[in-house]
Design brief:
The complex is a heterodimer of chains A (about 110) and B (about 110). By secondary structure, chain A is mainly beta. Chain A is built from no helices and eleven strands. Chain A is about 0% helix and about 55% strand. In chain A, a hairpin with a 2-residue loop joins β5 and β6. The relative contact order of chain A is 0.34. Chain B has no helices and eleven strands. The chains are: A mainly beta (about 110), B mainly beta (about 110). β10 of chain A pairs antiparallel with β10 of chain B, so a sheet runs across the interface.
Amino acid sequence: DAGVIQSPRHEVTEMGQEVTLRCKPISGHNSLFWYRQTMMRGLELLIYFNNNVPIDDSGMPEDRFSAKMPNASFSTLKIQPSEPRDSAVYFCASSRTGGTEAFFGQGTRLTVV
Amino acid sequence: KNEVEQSPQNLTAQEGEFITINCSYSVGISALHWLQQHPGGGIVSLFMLSSGKKKHGRLIATINIQEKHSSLHITASHPRDSAVYICAVIGSNYQLIWGAGTKLIIKP
């Protein structure tokens, strides 16, 4: 298995632009997590999906952030409009529900200038 | 031996009691999660810790990196705190490893 696949690996965009981050979870995993990592705040859980349904989005910082999971093999995290303070590494992770391990993608490094 | 161990596995207490749930881990970590799962199945992230202590309302979480140990405390417990509490660590390989959970029941 290729593991959790995120794209793009790097994204540089101007303030105000829309940014879409993509994630393909491991086949057969039905839980998906979006995390954000910054030097200041460490690793933060943004949203958690189970069977494509958002279960907990209390970590989403504000309305500019939205996440979707239209099917079991794809999820997006969208920021519109983007701001410089959104610059971070965004990780996607997947697991089996009830399992004891989750696997992370390699992350998307977002820079908003 | 599991890499993340929680204790106790089950805990029943009276409303108002001070609750402590413990988590010990044996791997190197970059962060530790405390999660709450209600009987309906939804999981809520309570805390993410990499050092020290965090407080949110009646909930307090502490972590001792040297001892590889974390505790979750609930002050003035209430029946609505009844849930399964899960400790999960983010390992050095970016794996998220869960403990088995602690089932907490708070009786009125």
